[in-house]
Design brief:
The protein is built from 4 helices and 11 strands. It is of the alpha+beta class and about 240 residues long. The chain has a single domain, classed as Hypothetical Protein Pfu-838710-001 (Beta Barrel), CATH 2.40.320. The longest helix is centred in the C-terminal third of the chain and has 15 residues. The relative contact order is 0.25. It is found in: Nucleus. Component of the Mediator complex.
């Protein structure tokens, strides 16, 4: 019987702070410690049968589990000074709120960085577990909801790399899931890196991306396209 050959493990990207970007604070008097981790990723739209792609993904990865969450994007209406411990800083113009498995996470996602000769999207990310009271805090700081969407699919993982096969859905006025935004699923290949590991991370991603071709060709994707109507989104994907 033919046995699919797994890609050789490339040199893993150097990570300065491990695999989780986050902020911890045990009580109001404790200092806040934030890890400075960058998310390196490639994206694509799956146009081949998902069953064939999943077989390839399972042959490359070590584990599989479903993912399902709702993401809300809040934008600032005013320029606000940051906290006292971050002198001369300002609060981010955009904050993401994610509901996943009955937990609420506040996500800071930096503006994608364009790096010469690095074929990957690079963004600074910080995740903070929070509660419903955070919405009051957002309102007091002048943030308003810009848009929201649901994500459903699967995550395949191996070593320091994750592969996501997901669909995005609009949120209906009553808060439930609407239609799928595109008939094809989205593929995201992702790993985390420190500031000095961008080149290694990009090489790591592209080594695995080669084994996913021709099932999917990985490209960059901007979630702001979710604010467009379906016709505009389809036109962008078909360019």
């Amino acid at each position: 019987m033919y046995q699919q050959q797994k890609p050789q493990q490339p040199q893993q990207p150097q990570t300065q702070h491990g695999l989780v970007a986050g902020v911890t604070q045990s009580n109001a008097t404790d200092s806040i410690v934030a890890t400075n981790v960058y998310e390196c990723s490639l994206h694509g739209i799956l146009s081949t049968p998902s069953s064939t792609f999943i077989q390839r993904a399972k042959g490359m990865m070590r584990s599989e589990h479903p993912v399902s969450y709702k993401e809300m994007i809040y934008k600032s209406t005013v320029q606000t000074q940051g906290p006292s411990w971050a002198e001369n800083s300002i609060l981010p113009s955009e904050i993401h709120i994610r509901y996943e498995k009955n937990n609420l996470y506040v996500r800071y996602i930096g503006v994608p960085q364009i790096k010469d000769n690095i074929n990957a999207m690079i963004r600074n990310v910080v995740d903070v577990r929070s509660s419903e009271t955070f919405f009051i805090y957002l309102d007091n700081l002048g943030y308003v909801k810009d848009y929201e969407y649901f994500v459903d699919g699967y995550q395949y993982s191996t070593y320091n790399l994750s592969l996501f096969l997901v669909n995005h859905r609009r949120v209906l006025p009553d808060g439930t899931k609407g239609d799928i935004l595109n008939k094809h699923s989205m593929v995201e290949l992702q790993c985390l890196s420190g500031e000095e590991g961008f080149v290694a991370a990009a090489e790591y991603l592209n080594t695995y991306a080669e084994y996913l071709y021709p099932f999917v060709e990985l490209i960059k994707f901007d979630h702001r396209n979710l604010t467009l109507d379906n016709a505009q989104i389809n036109n962008n994907y078909n360019r």
